[in-house]
Design goal:
- It contains 20 helices and five strands.
- The protein has 482 residues and is mainly alpha-helical.
- It has three domains: 125 residues, Rossmann fold; 120 residues, Serine Threonine Protein Phosphatase 5, Tetratricopeptide repeat (Alpha Horseshoe); 179 residues, DNA Cyclobutane Dipyrimidine Photolyase, subunit A, domain 3 (Orthogonal Bundle).
- Helix 2 links the parallel strand 2 and strand 3.
- Helix 5 crosses helix 10 and helix 13 packs across helix 15.
- The termini are far apart.
């Protein structure tokens, strides 16, 4: 039998993997390869939390392959050069991979495909990451969408008859002489001078395809019921928590949607199903935006914000935000959850981002950079869309004048203070009435939590008014240009 390379990237699974299945369907021996070349993703090479997850995910993939008779061949260096070497070493008749949609990856993959095809090597790419690829959904005028609702109305029509492939039970063995690196050789784990900073991650996560499928099963058996009403409450498990598994391709969105479509669900949870499906739709929309507006990973999609008077970064303020020492309990709880687990509840992400971009009035890129380094689900499309949405600078964005009140948000979504008490334990002895805004209860704060800041970094009301005043200058400049 002839060999075919299957180039794994962020599709670290065997089930519903079109590239792997295409090689098998063509009668080839799949040679699974992973090439570590983070510099090719610059300026968005994986952050520290992503690297820690990747280490374990690659180990899980290799174990899954070996259990089926195959193995993962790991190389490091320039992707084209390494692929050319592998093609020569295996006499591969074809190369298969699943597509990525970030600007740097698209450019790299285009170059590789053109180079190899010019040498007569068949190269095929496939869709493994999205329900609908960015170029397949267009407005009536033939352009990209900038608003979610019509985008999802169009895209959702394409989900009927969706299929998700199963994992092969056995795989043929690749050439035994083919050399590769060990996962540990890639230097993905925390350095020796920062030992085990990720230890808290693995109390909450199990990277790999098995962990992803287990997380899906737990969600379908539990949090899916009541999802629409409970998903915004950070003190309970009310979300799927599948985002890192989706980012690394340990599970496909098709597998998730198929499970939703095939389930024997009571009519009472129809609204929950629809709402969760729309959250997958937001992931699709984020990729749609990044593909059509690749500059937005760095620049505002809304050009009027190019003149917005952001505050010059104050490293002390920025550090306090990063470390969960802002003096605003809901913000601090979120930032500490992020540091400890590599993840933050989505409702709290919006609150923390609003505090940074509107109360502190720091550019959203400062927050996007920090999330990129600390989130295990750091996805360029989602991260960019999320920050620009909250900052009010992107497509389908929250208007700039919508400023999240962390006090009101805590009262609404964490009324018993379970989330705040868990992640800001020095406040655990405060009564509920003082938990969301402890600075308003100075005597209690001094008595019960003397180590917690006695005031927020900025006055919430004054900083809100300053942000709105800054926005008025942008509106006036825009009107003057017209």
């Amino acid at each position: 039998m002839s060999n075919a390379l299957v180039w794994f990237r962020r599709d670290l699974r065997l089930a519903d993997n079109p590239a792997l299945q295409a090689a098998l369907d063509a009668g080839h021996v799949p040679v699974p390869v992973y090439i570590h070349a983070p510099e090719e993703e610059a300026p968005w090479a994986p952050g520290a939390a992503s690297r820690a997850w990747l280490h374990r995910s690659l180990q899980a993939l290799d174990a899954d392959l070996q259990a089926r008779g195959s193995r993962l061949v790991i190389r490091q260096g320039d992707s084209l050069s390494e692929l050319e070497k592998l093609i020569s070493e295996t006499q591969a008749a074809a190369l298969h991979w699943n597509r990525l949609y970030e600007p740097a990856s698209i450019a790299r993959d285009t170059r590789i495909k053109q180079g190899l095809k010019s040498r007569g090597i068949p190269v095929e790419s496939h869709n493994a990451a999205l329900l609908v690829e960015p170029w397949t959904v267009q407005t009536g005028q033939g352009g990209p969408y900038r608003v979610f609702t019509p985008f999802w109305k169009n895209a959702r029509q394409r989900l009927e008859g969706l299929r998700a492939g199963s994992a092969p039970k056995r795989l043929p063995e690749p050439p035994v002489t083919l050399a590769g690196l060990d996962v540990g050789d890639l230097g993905l784990r925390p350095p020796a001078h920062e030992p085990d900073w990720d230890a808290g991650f693995w109390e909450h996560w199990a990277p790999g395809e098995a962990g992803a499928l287990e997380m899906l099963e737990v969600f379908l058996d539990g949090a899916l019921r009541g999802y629409k009403a409970e998903r915004d409450k950070p003190g309970r498990v009310g979300t799927s928590r599948l985002s890192p598994h989706l980012h690394f391709g340990e599970i496909s969105p098709r597998t998730i949607v198929k499970a939703l479509q095939d389930g024997d669900w009571p009519a009472a949870i129809e609204a929950d199903l629809t709402h969760y499906l729309s959250e997958l739709g937001w992931r699709e929309f984020s990729h749609h935006l990044l593909y059509h507006f690749p500059q937005t990973a760095q620049d505002n999609l809304n050009p009027k914000f190019e003149d917005f008077p952001w505050v010059d970064p104050d490293e002390a303020l920025l550090s306090a935000w990063k470390r969960g020492r802002t003096g605003v309990p809901l913000v601090d709880a979120g930032m500490r959850e992020l540091w400890t687990t590599g993840w933050m509840h989505n409702r709290v992400r919006m609150v923390a981002a609003s505090f940074l971009t509107k109360n502190l009035r720091l550019h959203w890129r400062h927050g996007a950079d920090w999330f990129w380094d600390t989130l295990v689900d750091a996805d360029l499309a989602n991260n960019t869309q999320g920050w620009q949405w909250t900052a009010g600078t992107g497509a389908d964005a929250a208007p700039y004048f919508r400023i999240f009140s962390p006090v009101a948000q805590a009262g609404r979504f964490d009324p018993a203070g379970d989330y705040i008490r868990r992640w800001v334990p020095e406040l655990a002895q405060l009564p509920d009435k003082a938990l969301a805004a402890p600075w308003e209860h100075a005597d209690l704060l001094r008595e019960k939590a003397p180590e917690y800041p006695d005031q927020p970094l900025v006055d919430l009301r004054e900083s809100r008014e300053a942000a709105l005043a800054a926005y008025e200058t942008v509106k006036a400049d825009g009107a003057a240009r017209r």
